[in-house]
């Protein structure tokens, strides 16, 4: 059974597709703020009716975001993955699920589900407007009785914007995850895909700022404070997220090339009945720097560096038993030379503090010793 990640703090509203539905308290603050902005955005005075309509629009926006995230959860579940949480936050939301053994297909399909859902909602809203059910007359405009039309129109436009923005090819947008999956599938290198998508996110962050400042100038006007603020807000969200993904990919990519075999010290196995002199002779002949000692049952009992054996006086080595230089290892600390990636990291966490190293065994024969400190250094 997959271990669930740490629970996100917030109000739990239930469960969907096996995962918890969490709304963070900051979401309520954003709802009120958006309601205020929607009701006074055109310079209008704040009224009860205006604020109510603004609150309805804000709620519809968060419902659209929720359906966006819910589609991620539904797709992950359909692909056989355990869904942990669907979280609605101050700036939108996120969905967490079991990503072990993730494939480019699963990653790309799960990411694409969000923007596609918003696109469908937008299409349905535009289709509803096209039926004429919300036709506007001059009297409607004069009397201001156009609430229904504006709400449906807002739903159509807001979801179209959500779909387009989230489809942009850069992390943290869903389009970035799709781009990551495409590069991953072509190159067979997941972290190269993340790096490309992270740089895409950085380019988009810069592009937002350039557009916010350049569009007004191209139209012959000076950028307003609002232009600068919204561009800066988007940039400070996108740039750090893309940069964090880039750093993580550069670090995690090392896991793909680091293995127990790549960091091990060559070793030779000798039985526990051998003397220090015999063990050193075998190590010299094999060009080994470590000696692995096997017990009466043939299992690994411990190891010691050749340098420790050489510290025994030469005249005493033939009569010195291996138990005097042996560094015991716990049962189960043998690993194959191919151990790498996430499994290597998980095994490192499991054994850190319990032993100083693993005995690397290939085809039933000890061939090396991988010191845990060397493994940790290689992963940095």
Describe this protein's structure.
- This protein folds into 2 domains: 11-255, no CATH class; 260-379, CBS-domain (Roll), CATH 3.10.580.
- The chain is elongated and about 105 Å long.
- With 380 residues, the protein is an alpha/beta fold.
- Helix 3 (104-130) packs antiparallel against helix 5.
- It has 14 helices and 11 strands.
- It is 56% helix and 16% strand.
- Strand 6 and strand 7 form a beta hairpin.
- It starts with 10 loop residues before the first strand and ends with a helix.
- The chain has a 7-stranded mixed beta sheet with strand order 8-7-6-5-11-10-9.
- It has helices at residues 26-40, 48-78, 104-130, 138-143, 147-166, 174-187, 190-218, 225-252, 254-257, 260-263, 276-286, 306-310, 341-351, 372-379, and strands spanning 11-16, 19-23, 83-89, 92-97, 265-271, 290-294, 300-305, 327-328, 334-335, 357-362, 365-371.
């Amino acid at each position: 059974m997959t271990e669930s990640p740490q629970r996100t703090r917030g109000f739990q509203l239930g469960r969907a597709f096996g995962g918890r539905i969490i709304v963070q308290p900051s979401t309520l603050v954003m709802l009120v703020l958006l309601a205020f902005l929607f009701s006074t955005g055109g310079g209008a005075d704040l009224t009860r009716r205006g604020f109510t309509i603004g609150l309805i629009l804000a709620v519809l926006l968060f419902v659209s975001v929720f359906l966006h995230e819910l589609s991620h959860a539904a797709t992950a579940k359909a692909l056989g993955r355990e869904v942990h949480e669907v979280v609605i936050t101050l700036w939108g939301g996120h969905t967490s699920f079991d990503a072990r053994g993730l494939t480019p297909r699963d990653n790309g399909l799960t990411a694409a589900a969000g923007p596609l859902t918003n696109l469908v909602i937008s299409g349905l809203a535009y289709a509803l407007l096209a039926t004429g059910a919300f036709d506007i007359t001059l009297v409607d405009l004069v009397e201001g009785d156009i609430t229904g039309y504006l709400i449906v129109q807002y739903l159509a436009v807001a979801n179209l914007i959500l779909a387009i923005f989230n489809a942009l090819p850069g992390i943290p947008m869903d389009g970035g995850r799709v781009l990551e999956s495409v590069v991953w599938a072509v190159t067979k290198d997941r972290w190269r895909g993340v790096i490309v998508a992270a740089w895409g996110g950085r380019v988009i962050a810069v592009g937002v700022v350039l557009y916010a400042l350049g569009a007004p100038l191209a139209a012959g006007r000076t950028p307003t404070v609002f232009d600068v603020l919204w561009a800066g807000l988007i940039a400070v969200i996108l740039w750090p997220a893309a940069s964090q993904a880039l750093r993580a990919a550069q670090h995690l990519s090392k896991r793909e090339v680091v293995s127990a075999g790549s960091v091990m010290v060559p070793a030779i196995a000798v039985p526990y009945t051998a003397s220090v002199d015999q063990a050193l002779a075998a190590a010299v002949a094999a060009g080994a720097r470590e000696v692995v000692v096997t017990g009466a049952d043939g299992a690994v009992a411990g190891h010691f560096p050749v340098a420790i054996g050489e510290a025994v006086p030469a005249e005493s080595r033939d009569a010195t038993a291996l138990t005097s230089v042996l560094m015991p290892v716990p049962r189960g600390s043998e690993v194959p030379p191919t151990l790498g990636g996430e499994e290597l990291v998980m095994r490192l966490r499991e054994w850190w503090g319990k032993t100083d190293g693993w005995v690397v065994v290939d085809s039933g024969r000890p061939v090396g010793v991988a010191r845990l400190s060397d493994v940790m250094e290689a992963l940095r």
